[in-house]
Amino acid sequence: MGSPIHTTVDRRIATGSPRVKVRRLRGGTWPYAFIFPMIVCLGLVFAYPLITVVRNSVYTSSMGETTFSGLENYRSLLQDPVFMTSLFNSLKLLVVVPVVTVVAVLIALMLYEGTKGWRAYRITVFVPYIIPATAIGISFSYLLQENGIVNIALRRISLGFLAQDWIGNSNIVLFSVGGLLVWTQLGFGVIVFTASLLSLPKELSEAAAIDGATRWQTNRLVVLPQIRGTVEFFLVLQAIQVIAWTFPYVYILTHGGPGNASSVMDLYVWRYAFQYSSPGLSSAAAVVLLLLAGVLIAIYTRLRMKQGER
Amino acid sequence: MHDVWRSKRRLAIASAAAVLALILSACSGPSGQNPQASGDPYTGSLTYWFWGESDVPGSTNWMQAAVSRYEALHPGIHIQVVPQATQTLQGAFQTAAQAKSGPDIAMQWATLPVLTPAWRGQITPLTGLIPESELSQWPNTQENTYDGKVWAMPLYLLGVPFVWNKDLFAKAGLDSTHGPQTWDELLADCAKLKAAGITPIMAGDKDGAFGSWFQSVVGTQTLDSVQELQAVYAGKADFSDPKYSGYLTRLAELRDKGYLSSDIASVESTEAWQSFAQGKGAMTWATDGNVAAWVKQGLGPKLGVQKTPQIATGKLAQYYDATQSISAFITSWSSQKAQAAAFLTWLHTSENMTNWYTTTGAFPADKRFDPSAITDPVMTQLYKLDTLPNQLWAENYAPPQVDDQGLRTVAQALLAGSTSASDATSQIAGIIKAWQTQQPDDFKTYSKWAAG
Amino acid sequence: MSRRIKIGSLIKHAFLVLVCVASIYPIWFILQTSVKTNAEYMLSPIGLPIHSTPSNYVQVIRSMPVPRWAWNSFVVTLISATLSTAIALPAGYAFAFGRFRGRSALFNSNIAFMVVPPVALLAPIFTLMVNMHLINRLPSVIIFYVGLFLPFSVFFITNFMRTIPVELLDAARVDGLSPFGTLRRIVAPLTSPALFTLMLVNIIYGWNELLIALVFLQDDRSRTLMAGLSVFQGRYVTQQPLVMAGSFLSVVPILLLYTFGQRFFVRGLTAGIGK
Fold first, then answer.
1. A12-49 pLDDT, tens per residue?
2. Fold annotation for B44-157+323-380
3. For residue B149, what are the β-bridge partners?
């Protein structure tokens, strides 16, 4: 370790915050050794496949030969009704994001106000988040059948008119998938927002209460703006989850059906790569999916930067 | 502080050792393929991807038992039977084919589902591996013949009869001794059943099978020959011609009149057959194997079986809907082709085929089978139907991608209520064109094969 | 006045209880159905089981190689989580306390990688594994998982380490400790709650993962539990109690982990994210 140690004192004082950040960073060769395994892994698992996918999307193969075909695959995608359906379905599912966020914030507010036994509620609500999607999908696929548990229960309490073919009706199957996503993600939101709320200084809320504000006004005008950063972070995380991480739920619950009504982007990419042996189309769809995720990340980075300026 | 650190350190070292042990065990795990194949066809380790339970309940157990018998006869051989799921049967095989790793013996449905992998070089022909004396005992090998070679082996003979529940017919005031003979009679019977509060047609389409089957049992009755059927995939005819797509209108009619079971879109075929056996629906299309299982449960006297009602007047309307269905083949990447061939040859011996019949009740695909062994009246009727001179299962002539995306998926959308028959027609026509563009090699070979 | 508060409080509790019941019921349904016989389930799908029987569990273990699948899942999950955490630890230290060229670029790339959908990486890595003859062998999935866990792991550890008081590091430097020594002796022990949480998160991710396991491990001997369960369901779809028994078996380890570890979960997640 013979290299000289460079010290840089970086002093940042955030106004109003009691914390003073002082970071002394050490230079030298040791960081390169520390990050080397990480670079190898990320290179193998991320960089190489990403480059390959982009490359494959502009080639078509026939008779074992691959030829450069430019945007041909993308054109085929636009003409493939299954792709368009999958794309729109993924986008439609984004509705889940505000729903989860709003409900999670509401519940977090309820728990934060010191409801008795709030810890127990929080623990329980989190359970769906960690249960394997496969088991959940199996359970719901029986619960949501036309003559499944949910409908039987509705009929028994005379709410039979609400009973639908939740996964067999192509008009509402996406709604059911969305509902499943809300059910799974809610607990995560509750945990995140409760933590955020609990870390807020109490003085502001107390001041507002002294000024005569009602609970609701306090929440709306004082508390919520303070957790805005967390809410934005959560929104983006959920959006990405919905666009790109729904495969196990859709695969198990509906297999994309009925008739592609619940097909989503990641299901499409998998299917065309591994079931229909169309590597060009599948890669092009994967690139579209990456672009979508990229847009969301760009939005988040913008928000982070804005927050950093505050 | 120091003690805490030391004990944490010990824990860390112990965990690291455990992880290392796990890593070693993972790396030495089986790879699913024995790279060293000995010359002896009775020594080795085979993986057999099996499917059959939906066609013939009990077939998986039969296969496991057969494998055990074979292993007892030849202790040097070990065969692992891996049951496949219907919805992923074709897809999982394609994935394995791309990996060139996985099964030595696999199964696909006859004709196109077998020929497509054959054309792609994923299958080894059985002609040459299995003695001609045995091959000649297999009926209907033309279903899997290409380029003068037989590519897959049949296990059983499967008809798709139209089945009705005699008790429920009687309850609705219908003559329970015979089923509907025409489309109009079918509609009239459905109306009477519905009026009596009985589900007229019990079916499950979550796996897409019913919509695709409808093309085979009803749709092709307008055609005159197999060549005419092949023409629509070979690009010589258009699917929007009503003689090809008319069945979608009839399917929509059944849907709109409420003659199909209400949960058809959210239950699978096997679940619907289970409901049928419980008397929850009056009519269905089932397989010989399922009827055999019902007969074994004692439901024989309640069941009426017949050919599908005559809907149209094409020559194919006289054909019976039957096929060898799932066919077994040897993969091209297998390093134990001799072992696999030896097993398949043994599997198809007369002794085993008779055992198949007595265990499952379904008819074996064996020319040596003695029909006098059939005692049940319902099964006798089915056997007569299965041995009619002309047989066709149209679904087998559709390229797998067209079947999966078009015949199955689009019909599924239709049954789920959102698509009209004309929309479904144009969608399927579009999917056929898409297949022709996306898989040009398969399309070329298909046209060549169809031209004879 | 107090009456209004009481009613409001009652409604609040009722709502929360409803949410909790909705959260738990589908999982309870799995357990409840798994101890019924097929016949009993047909008669009374909703009701509580009258005669609980473990026969479905016995059949599950006998009819499909479920123990083998569970073992594969266990091996893959544990090794991937451990390796990933072990690689992320020094990397996090370098990001938090080190200065090197490309640091912020690499860190930002890392964040970007966190949101890459695994399905986009699937086909190229599949081809890679085919060529390396690793398909149907556990290391193929392990390698992929280690890579997948890394971005979040590094992000999480880096953020946590940034909260460590710098005085400790200065003291270590004064004592003449190298960066590696500082990591080993001072920082790693302090990071252990975060490491623990991270292991939990990664273990759950790995255990629950379906897509990659489905594609890479098709051999029954190397299949993981989740992939096997999906095949299992396809095969036995008409026997709900049997399928539920299999499903519940896959849920048990997670439930156990959660019961004993939920404190770390909540604490860890809130520490890393709640800022």
1. 333 333 444 445 566 678 888 889 999 999 999 999 99
2. D-Maltodextrin-Binding Protein; domain 2 (3.40.190)
3. B146
Partner-chain contact C113 A42, CB within 8 Å: yes
Query: Could you give the angle at the alpha carbon of B294 between the alpha carbons of B288 and B298, nearest 5°?
Result: 135
- Tell me the pLDDT band of A209, cut-offs 50, 70 and 90: confident
Q: Which residue has the tokens 């190229």?
A: C124
B105 bridge partner residues:
B48, B330
- Answer yes or no: do A135 and A244 share one domain: yes
- DSSP code for B391: B
Contact yes or no for A95/A178 (Cβ under 8 A)? yes
Q: Does residue A84 share a domain with residue A51?
A: no
Best mutation target, A67, A147, A177, A272, to test chain B (most B CBs within 10 A) = A147
Q: Are residues A30 and A117 in the same domain?
A: no
Per-residue tokens: C19 = 């949410």
Structural domain total, chain C = 1
Partners of C98 in beta bridges: A26
Q: Work out how many CB contacts closer than 8 A connect B with C.
A: 89
CATH number at residue A233: 1.10.3720.10
CATH code, B161-320+393-450: 3.40.190.10
Sign of the CA dihedral B242, B244, B245, B248? positive
Residue A85 sits at the vertex; the CA angle it makes with A296 and A170, to the nearest 5 degrees, is 120
Which domain does A19 fall in, by range?
9-56
- Report chain B residues whose CB lies below 8 A from the CB of C220: 80, 82
At position A276, the amino acid (one-letter code) is Y
C 185-244: CB under 8 A from A: 204, 207-208, 210-211, 215, 226, 229-230, 233, 240, 243-244
A164 and A301 within one domain: yes
Contact list, C182 vs chain A (CB under 8 Å)? none
C154 to A143: CB separation less than 8 angstroms, yes or no: no
Name the token pair of C15: 């709502």
- Residue C44 within a domain: no
Cis before B30 (ω within 30): no
Q: What is the pLDDT confidence band of residue A3, given thresholds at 50, 70 and 90? A: very low
A188 and A133 in one domain?
A: yes
Q: How far is B447 from chain C (nearest CA, A)?
A: 30
Residues A49 and A83 in one domain: no
pLDDT of residue A177: 93
Contact partners for chain A, using 3 or more CB pairs closer than 8 A, are B, C
Residues A128 and A22 in one domain: no
